[in-house]
Sequence to fold (84 residues):
Amino acid sequence: MTQDEIIEMARQAKAIPIHKDFNQLALIGIENIEAFAKLVAQNDQKEIERLRALCHEMLSELYAYRASKHLKDVTATIRARGQA
Fold:
């Protein structure tokens, strides 16, 4: 989660600027703090799902690579036996 994403979530939770710099925000009241916590939790779940999908993709590629390598080894063995 980037700083910009966190700031945007704070704004969605009705945080108010505390200085001239609008990136310095304060969450006032339990309802706003709870709203912010829910947004963070939702974002974390999205990040978990994104990472899970990435891991699945990487494992699929690894299995495909290993299967391809194994198939080449088997093919080479068959060819070698056919020439013997």
